[in-house]
Amino acid sequence: MKLFERKNLVKVFTLLYTINAIVEVMAEYFSLKIILFITKPLIPILLMVMYFYESPKHYKLFYILMFFSLLTNLLFIPNTKEALFYGVITYTIHRIFLLIVIFNTAKVKNLVSFFLATLPLGFIFFYLFVAADVPENSYYLIFFHNLMAAVLGGAAISIYIESDTKQNSLLLISILLFLGLQLVIYIEKYYMINFYSIYIRPLAMTLNIVAFYVFYKFLITSERLDNN
């Protein structure tokens, strides 16, 4: 397929991604679960299609990452303890692959800056962990997940400080959005368990949609630079 045709296809799927994102956020706002079961899986699926046509390398781990994102999106639709438990498992696996993709794409060169950036984030997520009423069956998974969140944030900040480039800026923005998403999910699942807010889930999905798109652009930018 010619480069011009691939670019046009990417534009079409980017438009579809945007439309799906708007429908998704509105469905979250009005709690339309039937629509959510359609729009949520489409987020990673559309990103995989866009990546397939735009990527010069076709990094296989990205597809695995998006597959676990798809599972996580589906498992977080029902508001039950069982779905939350399995959702946390897939979310944790997803984060492991996210870490692998990041460390394979952008290198942490200064361990001191990495440690200094990770430490305060670790304290924040540790406080949230001990202050929340975490279910016993998810206790160690949530702890491990919070540890990975601190490492993700520390890596992105450290990489950006070492080299303020376009791809590192995109990485930092995407990871900060992912951390914001985790905080929102934490608040909903463990601090507002007896309350309902029409704004929490739309906010969480907005962060999720934008974070994944920015991360996709980070990976594409990095691959293009490597090919030059």
Please tag this protein with its features.
228 residues; mainly alpha; 8 helices
Summarize this entry quickly.
The protein has 228 residues and is mainly alpha-helical. It has helices spanning 3-30, 33-54, 60-75, 81-105, 111-131, 139-162, 166-191, 200-227.
Layout of helices and strands:
Elements: H1 3-30, H2 33-54, H3 60-75, H4 81-105, H5 111-131, H6 139-162, H7 166-191, H8 200-227
Structure in words:
The chain has 228 residues and is an all-alpha fold. The chain is built from eight helices and no strands. Helix 1 packs antiparallel against helix 8. The model has no long low-confidence stretch (mean pLDDT 89).
Radius of gyration: 18 Å
Q: How much β-strand is present in the residues?
A: under 5%
Q: Structural class, from helix and strand content?
A: mainly alpha
In DSSP terms, counting alpha (H) and pi (I) runs of 4 or more, how many helices? 8
What's the end-to-end separation, in Å?
21 Å
The topology string of helices and strands comes to HHHHHHHH
Number of β-strand runs: 0
pLDDT averaged residue by residue = 89
Overall shape: it is globular
Helicity level, as a percent range?
Answer: over 70%
Low-pLDDT stretches: none
Largest sheet composition: none
